[in-house]
Amino acid sequence: MTSGPAPNLGRIDLSEDRAKGMRRNATLLLVLMAAIFVVAHMLDDRHMAWGFVAAFAEAAMVGGLADWFAVTALFRHPLGIPIPHTAIVPNNKDRIGDTLAVFLRDNFLTPSIVARRMKRFDVAAAIGDFLTDKEGGEGRMREGASRLISMILESLDDERLGSSAKSAIASRMRELQISPILGQALGSAMRENRHVPIVDGLVRWASNILDSNEDVVRAMVYERANNFMRWLAIDDRLSDSIITGLRRLLIQMESDPHHPLRGKANEGIVGLVFDLQHDEATMERVEQFKLEMIENPAVTEWLDGMWQNAREALLRAARDPDRVMEGRFGDALRDLGETLKSDPDIRRAINIFARRAAVGTVADYGDSIVKLVSETVRAWDADTVTHRVENAVGRDLQFIRINGTLVGGLVGLAIHTVIVVT
């Protein structure tokens, strides 16, 4: 199974690596200042310049250690010693979650704020640009839809999903009472004379049956004739008369739309339409026939084949989105995009709908979202919270250590210079 990349995981790993690198650099800088201080202190009596170096290194160590303590105290106890007001993040994770939730609610999930921001955002134009940008929007849409559909279809168990789909179809067919539907459809067809081709087809079918079964008719007449009729060959003439009369009748019915037998057929269809919708016995017979058809193995095989064909068609479409987006469907999407960009009335209506939908969503679910954020942070253990926060801001915090080391050194150098000069 193919799947898309996981950019979020990659970004987290990269941030963690960078934070570790900056922590290592800040520590090495502190060690370097300590080494310089030792060397400068040993050489202090050889030249006055070493005093300036020692003062810089000494103050840099103090600044670096102070910032190391401050940074470390945010996430853990320095050197494992439970000093008061250290390990601030793990000890206050619940309050951090609640504060974050309140901040999110007050600054982002208030209906008035959402309405004000949505008023400045042209949703319809953005959709139009997305649909008409063949290389950008349409390409991204095709790739995204392709990846999503492929992942869903390939990750789901085929046999299990197919069984569920077929069971759902069969269940829906069992629940559906088709007799009234058939009656309404047939009645509508009669009102628009769309039943006439059916009657014509039945007449032609009967004519073909008669032509291909003349021997059967002659055999039936022969079996029912007595020996005298057979001796005089009356049975042959009777068979010819029956076949000729039936053929003439069928020809007349086919050529004359007002033939009396056609009228009888229409009356029969009208009666069937009524019975399908109102006669309990007819409706029960139709429903029983429907249930027998659903349980028929041939229908089960047909449903299975229909599911497999649909699944394979979806997979082919997902794997080749360019082909699906070509032709009328792709043209329709591009036309929709152009309409959204050019028609101010439609654009205004869509923007109003989007704004109302966003405001309504915030009004209905804003508190739930805030509660979800708070409860999620509360559910995290202290190590998880510490790890995530430290990875998010750790690199900047290590810059604070480096800056503190350098700034402390410069301050110490300045103080030493003032003392020497005065």
Outline:
The chain is an all-alpha fold and 422 residues long. It has three domains: 7-91 and 381-421; 123-155 and 300-342, no CATH class; 171-295, no CATH class.
Could you explain how this protein is built, in words?
Helix content is 86%, strand content 0%. By secondary structure, it is mostly helical. Helix 1 packs antiparallel against helix 2 and helix 14 packs across helix 15. It folds into three domains: 7-91 and 381-421; 123-155 and 300-342, no CATH class; 171-295, no CATH class. The two termini are 77 Å apart. The chain contains 20 helices and no strands. It is rod-shaped. It has helices at residues 7-42, 49-75, 88-91, 93-107, 111-119, 123-132, 134-155, 158-175, 178-191, 196-212, 214-224, 227-231, 234-255, 260-278, 280-295, 297-319, 321-325, 327-342, 344-379, 382-421.
Low-confidence stretches: 1-12
Average pLDDT metric: 76
Major pleated sheet: none
Helix content: over 70%
Structural class: mainly alpha
Number of helices: 20
What is the terminal separation in angstroms?
77 Å
What is the alpha-carbon Rg in Å? 43 Å
Order of helices and strands: HHHHHHHHHHHHHHHHHHHH
The number of strands is 0
- Proportion of residues in β-strands: under 5%
Task: Give the overall silhouette.
Answer: rod-shaped
Domains (count): 3
Query: What quaternary form is this?
Result: single chain
